[in-house]
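Students often ask what a holo structure prediction actually looks like on paper. The answer is less mysterious than it sounds. You provide the chain, you provide the ligand, and the output is a string of C-alpha cells encoding the 3D arrangement of the protein together with heme C.
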Amino acid sequence: MFRLALTLCLWPALAFALAPPPVPPENPATEQKRILGKLLFWDEQLASDSTVACGTCHQFKRAGSDGRTGIHPGLDEIYGTADDVVGSLGVVRRDAGGHPVNDPLFGFARQVTMRNAPQVLGALWAPEIFVDGRARSAFVDPQTGEVSIAAGGALESQAVVPLLAAREMATDNRTWADVIARVETAMPMALATYLPTDMKAALAGNPSYPDLFAQAFGSPAVTAARIGYALATYERTLVADQTPFDLGTMTPQQQQGLAVFMANRSACNGCHVAPLFTDNSFRNIGVRPIAEDGGRQAVTGLAADGGRFKVPTLRNVGLKTFFMHNGRLGTLEEVVDFYLGINGQVQFPDNQDPLMFGMAIGVAQRADLIEFMRHGLTDPRVAGAAFPFDQPILRSERGDANGDGNVDAADRSLFIGCHTGANLGPVANGCERLDMDGDADIDCGDWTAFTGVWTGAAPPQAFPACTVSHGIPAGPGSPWLLLAFLGMMTVAGTLTLRARRGG
Ligand code: HEC
Ligand code: HEC
Ligand SMILES: [Ca+2]
Ligand SMILES: [Ca+2]
Ligand SMILES: [Ca+2]
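The corresponding C-alpha cells follow.
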C-alpha cells in the first residue's frame, strides 16, 4: 500500500511530453512528402492485384494493427494446433505472370502472414523495427544496394519490404520495375471513397504519381528509395500524444492502474517504459516455445536472443483486437492472466526474462491496471480516425462495417441501422463503409452491392426495406441462386424507386 501511494505521488512527474520522432537528416520532412506517403500508404493499387494497401493490415481504429482474423497454421503447417498464429491477410498467391497459384498452405485463398501485424504507431521512435528488429537503422536503397540513410532509417528500411513480399502485396518474384511501373500508371486513390480533406486537396488537379513525386522530390522519377522516404515521412507524423495519460485527465481508477503498472511487484514499467511505454529492447516473456519462432535470434544469431521480441508500445493498446506477435491473446484480461500465469494461460520459461519471475497483482489491482491500459493510453484521435489518423475507405473495406475482415450478419445489422434511403444522406457515424458506391447516401443500390461482397456462411437474409412486396422463397435451395435472386429483386426495386423519383 505504501508503495502504491508513493508512486501515485510521483506520477505527474512522469507525464512529460513525448519527444517528437527522430528524423534522419537524409530524409527531411516536408508536407509534399508527407501527403505523398499518406496516399501511397492507403492505395490498394500498390499491391500486384490491387486488393491490399499498407493500411489494410494497419488499421488506425485498431491502433494501426490488424483487426481481421487470418489464421496461419504455424510451424507444423497443420491448422487447429497450438502453434497456429493469428496473422494478417495479404494477397492470393500468384506467379510472376499474375496467374493464381495453389499455395500449399492457403490454396487459392488469401495468404496469411506468420506474425500478427504490430501497430505502426509504435515504430516511430524505435531504432530497429519489425518484431525481431530486422528493419535496420541504416537504410540500404534496394535498387542500388547503397546506404541511403546512415542511421535512423528503420522506417524507410521497413517500408520497402511489403511491396515485394509475396504473402503481403506481391506476386511471386515481383521486382522493383513492376512496382514502379504500377505506381507510374495508377490513378492515385482510384479505388478508395471518402478521401480525407488533405488527400482530396492534393489530388485536386488530378495529378499522377510522377507529378506528386516531382512535388515531393523535385523530379518525377519513382524509385524504391523515394517510396520508402515518403512512407516513412508520413509515418513520422502519426504521433499519438493526446492520451489521458499525456493530458493529465486520467480518472482515479486509471491513476490507480498506472500505479499498479509502475509497482515493482508488477514490473510492467521495467520493459514498457513511460512515456513511450516501451524501451524498444527485445525481451523473451515466454509467449510460446522458442522453436516455433526464435524472434530476435534469427537476426543476431545469438542463442541469448532466442524467443526475444520487440517490447511493443502500449499507447492505444486498448484499441487492439489481438495481442502478442502471434496474436493468440484476444483481450487485455487474457494478457494480464498471461503475465500472472493464471486462468489457463501458460508461460514458456526457456530463456525467459528475469523480470517475469515473481509478478503478483491482486484482483482489484488487475481491474485498475486493465482500465489504465484500455482507456488511459488511448488517443481519441486514433480511436475516432481524426487527423492525422484519418483515412479513406478502401475498396476492400466496403461492406465490412465492423472491420473484422468478413461481410456477414454483424455487418448486415449495421447496414440496417445505417440505411438512409435514397438520397436522404448524409452518411456518418462509421456508416461510410456501407456506402458501397461512395455517393454519400445508403440506399438499396448499396444493399445490392453489399450482398454481392457477402462472405458469411449462410446467404444474407433479405433487408425488407429493399425487397418490399416480393415473395422471397424460403427453405432449401442453392444459396447462390437465392443470392442472385435477391440481387435481381433489389436491383429491380432500386430501378423502380429511381423511376418514381424521376431519376
Ligand atoms: C498483409 C499485411 C501487411 C501489409 C500489406 C503491410 N504490413 Fe506492415 N506489417 C505486417 C506484419 C505481419 C508485420 C510484422 C512482421 C514482423 O515483424 O515480422 C508488419 C510490420 C510493420 C511495421 C513495423 C512495426 C514495428 O513496430 O515493428 C511497420 C512500420 C509497417 N509494418 C508498415 C507497413 C507499410 C508502410 C506497409 C506498406 C508498404 C505495410 N506495413 C504493409 C503486415 C502488413
Ligand atoms: C520483460 C519485459 C516485459 C515485462 C516485465 C512486461 N512486458 Fe508486456 N510485453 C513485453 C514484450 C516483449 C511483449 C511482446 C511479446 C510478443 O510480441 O510476443 C509484450 C506485450 C505486452 C502486451 C501486448 C501488446 C500488443 O500490442 O500486443 C501488453 C498489453 C503488455 N505487454 C502489458 C504488460 C503488463 C501489463 C505488464 C506488467 C504486468 C508487462 N507487460 C510486463 C515485455 C514485457
Ligand atoms: Ca499449427
Ligand atoms: Ca465484418
Ligand atoms: Ca450509396
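The beta strands are 70-72, 85-87, 89-92, 110-112, 139-140, 147-149, 282-283, 309-310.
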